[in-house]
Amino acid sequence: MTKPLTIAMPKGRIFEEAAGLMQQAGYDIGAGAEESRKLILEFPEQNINVMMAKPMDVVTYVEYGAADIGIAGKDVLLEQDRDVYEVLDLKISPCYIAVAGLPDQPLSRIAPKIATKYPKVASDYYREQGEQIEIIPLNGSIELAPLIGLSDRIVDIVSTGRTLKENGLVEYEKITEITSRLIVNPVSYRTKSERIDPLIEKMGEQVGVNS
Ligand code: PRP
């Protein structure tokens, strides 16, 4: 038998939707994954291995060829600028990246502080605006930063808007829309095309793309 196709799946809130979409496309890889602590799940009848990865790390596994394909948020792809092929917009987990902060706070003229877990996205955005800023890198609970005076603004994901609202923050500008994408390792794309091409096609049918 040929080597299994290895798929890096994002653990956490995207997983269920992503695994559901794969199942609809005929790849039944979700069963029991989230309840188990196993990080590599084998599906020998489908000749597939699934790696359960942190969403921010999926792109790394795919870039280095540890996984042939993966499902990653466009936010991670924009932030990390890695050498992977982005082959399909899966249109799941829609959200957007926005600038937010305390209400009625004009942006300070001198190097305003921007807290974010997306330093590249935030820097690119403010460079385009012609603003000199200082990035405060954080890993989560970004909304804390303006509340305690650590930053003037945040650049972060908005999904339902609940986190902003419940913390008394307002959105100032929308930067970009985000959905999850199917990504492929460039070498696997050539060497495993007999497995990967049909997968892209079937997933494409599910999300309404004529490939
Ligand atoms: C994300 C994001 C916001 C929140 C937005 O954080 O960073 O904090 O979700 O969702 P909402 O608009 O539906 O409220 P996440 O829950 O991933 O955790 P984190 O704070 O650890 O990054």
For the structure shown, list the relevant keywords.
histidine biosynthesis; binds 1-O-pyrophosphono-5-O-phosphono-alpha-D-ribofuranose; ATP phosphoribosyltransferase activity; about 210 residues; 8 helices; ATP_PRibTrfase_HisG; D-Maltodextrin-Binding Protein, domain 2; six-stranded mixed sheet; EC 2.4.2.17
Structure characterization notes:
- With 211 residues, the chain is α/β, with parallel strands linked by helices.
- The protein has two domains: 5-93 and 179-206, Periplasmic binding protein-like II (D-Maltodextrin-Binding Protein, domain 2), CATH 3.40.190.10; 95-177, Periplasmic binding protein-like II (D-Maltodextrin-Binding Protein, domain 2), CATH 3.40.190.
- Helix content is 30%, strand content 29%.
- The chain has a six-stranded mixed beta sheet with strand order 2-3-1-4-11-5. Strands 8-7-9-6-10 form a five-stranded mixed beta sheet.
- The protein is elongated and about 65 Å long.
- The model has no long low-confidence stretch (mean pLDDT 95).
- Bound molecules: 1-O-pyrophosphono-5-O-phosphono-alpha-D-ribofuranose.
- The site of 1-O-pyrophosphono-5-O-phosphono-alpha-D-ribofuranose has 12 residues, from strand 9 and helix 6.
Element layout with pairings:
Blueprint: E1 5-10, H1 15-24, E2 40-43, E3 48-53, H2 58-63, E4 69-73, H3 74-80, E5 85-89, E6 95-101, E7 113-116, H4 119-129, E8 134-137, H5 144-147, E9 153-158, H6 162-166, E10 170-178, E11 180-184, H7 186-191, H8 193-206
Parallel strand pairs: 1-3, 1-4, 7-8, 7-9
Antiparallel strand pairs: 2-3, 4-11, 5-11, 6-9, 6-10
This protein binds 1-O-pyrophosphono-5-O-phosphono-alpha-D-ribofuranose.
